[in-house]
# Entry
Amino acid sequence: MSKLTPVSHNDLIKKLRKFGFDGPHSGGKHLYMLKGDLRLTVPNPHKKNVGVDLLTRILKQAGITREEWIEEGQSRE
# Structure
């Protein structure tokens, strides 16, 4: 099984869009993305890499499994 790796801010946004999220939208201190009634905060306004721990928390909130995330990344290659 593949492991999660850090992801750039831009790749995070692109992949979340592939999972049906709309945005990012500005609001408050952070950008956010929407999918139905779910509002997902997108961290890292300085556009540095998002680490594995934070990525894991984002995926949990988004309802995306590690396997789905990794598979989506591999389908691009």
About this structure: The domain at 9-75 is CATH 3.30.920.30 (Metal Transport, Frataxin; Chain A). The first strand starts at residue 22 and ends at 27. The beta strands are 22-27, 30-35, 38-42.
